[in-house]
Design a protein that fits this description.
binds nicotinamide-adenine-dinucleotide; 45% helix; alpha/beta; globular
């Protein structure tokens, strides 16, 4: 026999899951957002990889066939509209949005010790930025009249208080939990599904400093029945599911992916 063996049929099915569809991923320059962008492209979606970190977005998109880098700031409504426009200009439509842009507190502090600016910075990116990204995408999806799907990356901190010292972050993520439900409710009439994927503790640049401290790392593990932290691919695979037709009747859900932390 000459030449490469034919690909098994299952591979074609996998790769064609999102064939012809277009997605926008915010926070795609790093961590969970990058892994989501990679997974969506692997399943046949064309993806706008958006991030405030232009170099990070470039690095993600460069490795992916059918992806472009978009520099955007989720705090700025014009920038969110422009990011949606850039994806549509390049790929002609928009079917999916994943909001993975996010920030954590710079330094853990007791709740009364945060100043207004630090509190506002977290809310601005994590909550207002999620809303502005989703609103820009929804406006395009409603105009297209083809429906759409969104996954908002929240956190288990949107349902519980996972640890000491991050009050602005948990407040922002609690907001994302309810924002997701509200968007799902309002946009169901336009066939736009919205679900919140709530990671537990994931190995990314956001958690790298805590993981480097053995005491902090052990404190995380003490909460996780599965006894380990997650890898980014374990978030991306659930995002793929939520965006796929396998989740066709799911909207407004809060989906913890946390190794059992919330049990
Ligand atoms: N890593 C975890 O353990 C964990 C747990 C729960 C929730 N999350 C959430 O997952 C999401 C992704 O986090 P991650 O761990 O991949 O972190 P990360 O720091 O690796 O990635 C976050 C990305 O968001 C981008 N970003 C920040 N501000 C932005 C802005 N204003 N506009 C556009 N992009 C911006 C950053 O440049 C970065 O590329 C965040 O919302 C985070 O809160 C992470």
């Amino acid at each position: 026999m000459t030449g490469a063996a034919p690909k098994p049929l299952s591979d074609y099915r996998e790769n064609e899951m999102f064939a012809g569809q277009v997605g926008l991923v915010t926070g795609a320059g790093s961590g969970i957002g990058r892994a989501v962008a990679e997974a969506l492209v692997e399943k046949g979606m064309r993806v706008g990889c958006a991030d405030i970190d232009a170099a990070g977005a470039e690095e993600t998109a460069r490795k992916l066939d059918g992806a472009i880098a978009i520099t955007m700031d989720v705090r700025d409504q014009d920038s969110c509209e422009a990011a949606v426009e850039a994806a549509i200009t390049e790929f002609s439509r928009l079917d999916a949005l994943v909001t993975a842009a996010g920030v954590q507190v710079r330094e853990k502090k007791r709740a009364d010790e945060f100043d207004r600016d630090e509190f506002a910075r977290i809310i601005d990116v994590n909550l207002t930025g999620t809303y502005l990204s989703a609103r820009a995408a929804a406006r395009a999806m409603i105009a297209q009249e083809r429906g759409g799907r969104m996954v908002l990356i929240g956190s288990i901190g949107g349902q519980t208080t996972p640890m000491f010292g991050i009050a602005p972050y948990t407040a922002s993520k609690g907001g994302v939990t309810m924002l997701g439900r509200s968007l799902a409710y309002d946009w169901a009439q336009h066939d736009i599904r919205v679900n919140v994927l709530a990671p537990g503790v994931v190995r990314t640049p956001m958690t790298a400093a805590s993981f480097a401290d053995p005491e902090k790392y052990r404190a995380f593990l003490d909460h996780i029945p599965m006894g380990r932290v997650a890898e980014v691919g374990e978030m991306a695979s659930v995002a793929v599911f939520l965006l796929s037709d396998a989740a066709a009747y799911m909207t407004g859900a809060f989906v913890p992916v946390d190794g059992g932390w919330l049990t």
